[in-house]
Design brief:
Layout: H1 7-17, H2 19-25, H3 34-43, H4 47-55, E1 61-63, H5 64-68, H6 84-99, E2 111-113, H7 133-153, E3 165-173, H8 178-186, E4 193-202, H9 207-216, E5 224-227, H10 235-244, E6 252-254, H11 267-281, E7 288-290, H12 300-304, E8 313-315, H13 323-331, E9 340-342, H14 348-351, H15 353-363, E10 369-371, H16 382-389, E11 397-399, H17 407-417, E12 425-427, H18 453-469, E13 476-478, H19 487-491, H20 493-518
Parallel strand pairs: 1-2, 2-3, 3-4, 4-5, 5-6, 6-7, 7-8, 8-9, 9-10, 10-11, 11-12, 12-13
GO cellular component, one term: cytoplasm
InterPro entries: LRR_dom_sf, LRRC14/PRAME
Keywords: Leucine-rich repeat, Repeat
């Protein structure tokens, strides 16, 4: 459905569509029309006009999320368009804003907020070239350093050195852009463009480098911290991190796989876990916690009970939770506030069906996203699952890949899912009867694609028909075999692959050395 445009917006489009004409006349444009012209230029991918609008920005703030979001003149939200042409023009325009001496406007700009940009899988911009979070981090750091070099070697207007603009950004740092970002952060106090890190993600980075850069970001301003792939952070390192730095505004924390492993716990480890729980309790804003693939058997209460603010998002997938852990979750004050919950990798039907019922009933009034992948949910459990999901009338997303369900059971489940009024996204498994007889669950990566694709397509069609007949065309149903889309992984997959090969090679060399010593 085409989004309605006001006459003002149509006029703005007509104005910016002739780039040369628009650029020459910007000096006579009223200040309050700049946001309108910016969104129109972004929609039409008029890079040169975007550059000049930012270079001459007459207002005190520049907020990408608000500028590209739903507006009175044009309701469509463009903040998910990470168009390379537009974003590069925007950032280079910002650099030139600092250097633009004969600007007809008084330089009022104090805050640039880039955090409203959303990275999504499908891009609608015509150029089809995206600039993801990693590339935005790289370009902003590069421009800040270039600006410093220029100011050092060129005679500039004295007023240039008085410019101070806070640039709010979600940084994404890996080994490949580490040095550049570190240099930009180290020299931040001398640069008119001040990088202010609101959210920080780190992948493929040595632990020492992670500790170095996290200090430079100013942890007191961080709202989101994601330490994800190939950062070898273990419990003792997490304790050092929390003891040496304070995160008063932190709302969201993601820890890498195997941060915790209670199977080899000593008395020291127990003390450490208690201390980490207490430190998290001091983070009064913390409402999102993700710690997948850690072994936390019997320790969830120790870790979460010190929290003073209820969690809205919890990911404890593949954390080997036992009955006591689930009972704590179901009875804790967190249960009534959980909007996003991931319990993947736990044998829910066999180990704790009644506790699971209780947990869902407590969170049902707010629960929006539920993930139950590889939970051994079989055909005999479908009625139980339907009963548990029935109160969850606000559920928008349900993911249950990797469960041994037949096509018949899936049809039964989909008939029920049509009744959830707010449901928008479903990720369902390849039916068990599409795989060879005797397949064992969880299915290993090598066997994952060895199913009858023709039969799967036929079942998928039938499932979509169930949605269609219930007038639920608004529900997207899919089977992403290797997990949901991750924009950060997609952008840095080459580096991630190289890092994994390097790690495998090192492990192989150590193993060979050990064998040689033995012989």
């Amino acid at each position: 459905r085409a989004t309605m445009k006001s006459l003002r917006f149509i006029s703005a489009e007509a104005f910016v569509s002739k780039a040369e004409f628009a650029r020459k006349r910007l000096s006579s444009v009223a200040h309050n029309l700049f946001p309108l012209l910016f969104k129109a230029s972004y929609l039409l991918e008029q890079g040169e006009v975007i550059h000049d609008l930012v270079e001459n920005w007459p207002l005190a703030d520049f907020n990408m999320g608000k500028l590209l979001g739903t507006t009175v003149d044009y309701e469509e939200d463009l903040s998910h368009r990470t168009c390379s042409v537009c974003l590069e023009s925007c950032l280079t325009g910002l650099k030139d804003y600092v250097l633009n001496h004969p600007s007809p406007y008084v330089k009022r700009l104090k805050v640039v907020d880039l955090t409203g940009i959303k990275d999504v899988e499908v891009q609608f911009c015509e150029c089809k070239k995206t600039m993801g979070r990693w590339a935005r981090t790289q370009l902003l750091s590069k421009l800040c350093l270039e600006l410093l070099v220029y100011l050092q070697h060129t005679e500039c207007n004295p007023g240039t050195f008085e410019i101070s603009i806070n640039v709010l950004i979600d940084l994404f740092v890996t080994e490949r852009n580490y040095e550049l970002v570190v240099q930009a952060l180290l020299k931040k106090c001398y640069c008119p463009l001040k990088i202010c890190c609101v959210a920080f993600r780190s992948d493929n980075l040595a632990l020492q480098k992670f500790f170095c850069i996290i200090k430079l970001t100013d942890p007191s301003l961080l709202r989101k911290l994601e330490i994800v792939h190939n950062v070898r952070l273990e419990m003792e390192h997490l304790e050092i991190l929390f003891n040496s730095m304070h995160f008063p505004l932190l709302m969201s924390l993601t820890l890498p796989a195997r941060t915790f492993n209670v199977r080899r716990f000593t008395a020291t480890d127990e003390r450490m876990l208690t201390n980490i729980g207490e430190k998290m309790g001091e983070m009064m804003q913390l409402t999102e916690l993700s710690m997948p693939f850690s072994i936390l058997t019997g320790r969830i209460q120790k870790l979460l009970s010190p929290l003073k603010t209820p969690l809205k998002m919890l990911d404890v997938s593949n954390c080997s939770l036992n009955h006591a852990d689930m009972a704590y979750l179901a009875n804790s004050f967190h249960a009534n506030h959980l909007e996003t919950l991931d319990l993947s990798g736990h044998d829910i039907p066999d180990l704790y069906p009644s506790i699971f019922f209780k947990l869902l009933s407590h969170s049902s009034s707010v629960l929006r996203s539920l993930t139950l992948e590889d939970c051994n949910i079989q055909d005999t459990h479908v009625n139980m699952l339907i009963l548990a999901l029935s109160p969850c009338q606000r559920l928008q997303e349900f993911k249950f890949l990797g469960n041994p369900l037949s096509s018949q059971a899936l049809k039964h489940l989909f008939t029920f899912l049509c009744e959830l009024p707010m449901l928008k996204n479903v990720e369902f498994p390849v039916p068990r009867d599409c795989y060879p007889i005797g397949i064992t669950y969880p299915i290993d990566d090598a066997s994952l694609c060895r199913f009858d694709h023709q039969k799967y397509e036929s079942v998928a069609e039938e499932l979509n028909l169930i949605l269609l007949q219930a007038n639920r065309e608004d529900v997207k149903a899919s089977t992403p075999l290797f997990g949901s889309y991750d924009a950060a992984v997609q952008e840095t997959n080459n580096e991630l692959g190289a890092y994994l090969i390097k790690s495998f090679k090192e492990t192989l060399e150590k193993f060979t050395t050990s064998l040689n010593k033995m012989s």
